[in-house]
Amino acid sequence: MKKIEAVVRLSQFDSIRDALADIGVTFFTMSDVKGFGLQKEKRVYRGSVYDADYIARLQIDILATDDKVKQIVETIVSSGRTGKVGDGKITVYDVNTAVRIRTGETGSEAI
Questions:
Q1: Are 1 and 63 in contact (CB under 8 A)?
Q2: How confident is the model at residue 98 (pLDDT cuts 50, 70, 90)?
Q3: In sequence order, which residues have a C-beta less than 8 Å from that of residue 103 and are 6 or more positions away?
């Protein structure tokens, strides 16, 4: 099992969600996160320009079986790409075990 963690633009979330649904990803969690990277965001308030230290993003966490990881990653990349700096990052982690609290199922049955 793997955990796929994707940090993406807020504006791309709907297309990513729809693309994941199209390939059968029926469950994931998401969180509002802030980050700092190569992209610099400037905000204008009453005519003055302010540099924002942190940029708002969404983090999507997906548990998947090993055979689905490549397809999920490719789907997030293709549906989340704008071609501009700040499109985000995807990391994939090994997961030792997962347990469904309601039933006690473990491993791939729990996801």
A1: yes
A2: very high
A3: none
The two structure tokens encoding residue 46: 């009453």
Domains of the chain: 2-110 (3.30.70.120)
Supply 79's token pair: 């549906």
CA-to-CA dists, residue 111 to 25, 27, 35, 41, 89, angstroms: 10, 9, 28, 37, 23
Q: 50-84, pLDDT tens digit by residue?
A: 656 678 899 999 999 999 999 999 999 999 999 98
**Helix ranges, 12-99 (H):** 13-22, 69-80
Cβ(96)–Cβ(106) below 8 Å: no
Residue 86 has pLDDT above 90, yes or no: no
- Written as six digits, the tokens of 55 are 């940029």
